[in-house]
Amino acid sequence: MPGKTKITRISSLSEIPAEEWNLLGDPENPFSNHEFLYSLELSSCVGGRTSWIPEYWLAEDESGVHSSLPFYHKYDSYGEYIFDHSWANFFSQNGLSYYPKGLVAYPFTPVNGKKILRRNNVSAEEALDVLLPPLLKNAMEEGLSSIHFLFLEEEEARALEKRGFATRITHQFHWKNRGYTGFENFLGDFRSKKRIQIKKERETIRESGIRILCKEGKEISEKDMDSIYNFYTETYSRKWGSPYLNRKFFKIILEKFSQNLVLFLAEKDGDTIGGTFNLKKGKKLYGRYWGSSSHYPFLHFECCYYAPIEYAIQNGFEIFEAGAQGEQKFLRGFPAVPTYSSHFIFHDQARNAIERFLESERMHMQEMIRETNLSSPLKETVRGESEDQ
Hints:
This protein is an alpha+beta fold. It is built from 12 helices and 15 strands.
């Protein structure tokens, strides 16, 4: 990169204006925005006594900041969604410390997109050329076991691979807009049995007296966000234990980022009984948190899949990422897609062992994605076949 480059580290996004940081962000990913990441800081969901300690790396030239890495010192593996607990156990069994480690990611957010943030005229390769050497050097000096980049663009993973990182392939289930004119048009892509089932599921919701409301931007009230927070914490307490986000985060994100928020709220007899928290940016919609006050048949599918898909079609969104897990998504028109992360282990023997594991895992994962999509309920499979059943 021409000219002299200055590398700096900041411990809080309060040290850089939002408009300057956002020039580096992903045009399709709201989680790269200053507003989202800084809300995590202000609500104490990261930093302080948490296991996510921010240390944002910035590269600056004569035109200003041209690239950055949202970097965190991590003291456990929770909230990452790329599971490496077995690696931590391997380290422990061999008398080594896996924590702290270094992480480039958006906390608690398993969504694909740029993690090597940069201006439009800066490539991932150019950003890594200036940011990666000092990052690796500093990580070794501070005694970090490893550096991990999570949920990358494939281009970024390939650039890191050239620099000694090992690529890990996992998978998610994403909905893709094939130019649909409406939800009925989308249903036309399904084989008949599944198409009938989805219609019955939506009909059950309507007949039960449940109404689904879509609220976005300034339509969203503090009361709506309180409901979403309560549903979110209830879901976590039933399934995963302690939630990562607190009530303060939901309050701040509404104040700072309402233009990117989309809620789907279920109402029955005047009460809000369930809902989902979603974010949007560019041509992508992201489903994040779901919950309900009680069990209602098919309400999860309606709030998490069908209503957002209908919204995405109406508003011209191209991709809907509905979260990290998902056999139920696959059965409702979300094909399996690969996701990429990159890993550099400083200990030679541990690095060799983990790289061998990842090589085998990649082959298995690629085959699994292919085989999964061949059994899609959609008439058009990954091979472009089309035949109703």
